[in-house]
Amino acid sequence: MKKDVLVKMQCNDCKSINYCTRRNKKTIKEKLELKKHCSKCNKHTLHKETKK
To answer: Largest Cα–Cα distance in the chain?
Structure first.
């Protein structure tokens, strides 16, 4: 993956960084918010994009 489109996803509940994903910054201006499974919380929670 290219570094300029790589984003980290952080759990809203436990604040751990669990996922890395890609985002096209030219077409998607707002930050990503996805519902993903957190291994530390052991449930599906909202994950938001964090700073690099």
So the answer is: 34
- Of 1, 7, 2, the C-alpha closest to 48 is 7
CB neighbour burial string for 1-16, b if at least 16 within 10 angstroms, e if fewer: eeeeeebebbbeeeee
Chain centroid to CA 42: how far?
17
- Would you place residue 27 in the very low, low, confident or very high pLDDT band (cuts 50, 70, 90)? confident
Burial group, residue 46, by CB count within 10 angstroms (0-12, 13-18, 19+)? middle
Delineate the domains of the chain, giving CATH numbers in brackets. 3-50 (2.20.28.120)
Task: Determine the average pLDDT of the residues in 2-31.
Answer: 86
